[in-house]
Amino acid sequence: MPHRRLLGTAVAAAAAFGLLAVASPAAVASSSQPEDREPLRVASYNVSLNRADEGQLISDLERGDDQAAAIAQVLQTVRPDVVLLNEFDYDADGEALDLFRSDYLEEGQHGEDPIEYEYAYTAPVNTGVDSGFDLDNDGRTGTPDDALGFGEFPGQYGMVLLSRYPIETDDVRTFQDFRWQDMPGALLPGDPGTDATGDWYSDEELATLPLSSKSHWDVPVRVGRTTVHVLAAHPTPPTFDGPEDRNGRRNHDEIRFWADYVASPARSSYIYDDDGVSGGLQPGSRFVVVGDYNADPHDGDSVDGAIRQLLDSPRINDPEPTSDGAVEASELQGGANIYHEGDPALDTADFDDSAPGNLRSDYALPSKNLPVSHSGVYWPAANEPGSELTGVAPFPTSDHRPVWVDLLVPGLR
Length: 413
Fold this sequence. Notes:
With 413 residues, this protein is α+β, with helices and mostly antiparallel strands.
């Protein structure tokens, strides 16, 4: 399996190394903000462009896909400078990504202006990669639950990072292979039938099982004179398991990984990347944590405090982006939403009304040394333009909404 996939301007050089590169003009910048500084808009969007069969996303995009067109329209409306797309099926040749950029994003959708991303990054993920073990202990092997990350085929539920600004490809770090057992104090699940702790997986399984259900990426983006590290991930949902809570515990530790990564060198010293380089992020670096983290600080099924590991980090700023549409949806849909403790204005995902209800699942969390000018969630109320792009199940786009933050980056004008 290739270690990483880079997409950018150096077509010839990338081809020589078996990588794909596509160049296109950068999009026009948005309007100026305080101090005459142009903000950097960073977004996270679970686009649900995952399909049941390998290669199906490519076929759908080639044919013309209404969901992809609606997703593109949302992105053309929000116009992020850098955006992580979760649940975008990975293919080794980057065909789906090329098609989505050229035939959807770079074509105006329903009156919106096209948007072009000159730089992109994608890489293999653990979803659908057969472990060879019976990881769910159901007496069978080779099922989606026995993959290194749940999936029907390798690359399902993959990730893509799109950027108007250059990606410092030589400095990208990936953590696809970091083993869960190598995290000190990991919340490894125990077999409910024994008195032991952390014994759900055998020693042989733990020697293979990675922490990340997809991958963790540190993708440096050069914004003017400043490097902003985009820390991307998509932890497993904390459900679809049993009393051992193997998915809930893994979700907790996948979130913890970034909290440790941006902390002190002593706390992050155990971390190693896929190239064998140890340690976390250099102190003082500017970064944004993005992704669908499948964890709400108040509601849902995640382990208590899971997302708080990021929200309460002294290195991270939570701008608490909101929308009117989320409040309206919570009131109209009722169900589990009635009993939620969290502020519905912060919700980013429209889940089943019976359980778990709508949740704050998606995040764009900047480091405290990146001032925030604005933030938001694209969830229009029913009487607002764009509400037809969110709607109710079956959703024309996704059951998630894009969340974005505008950052004042030193040296960017």
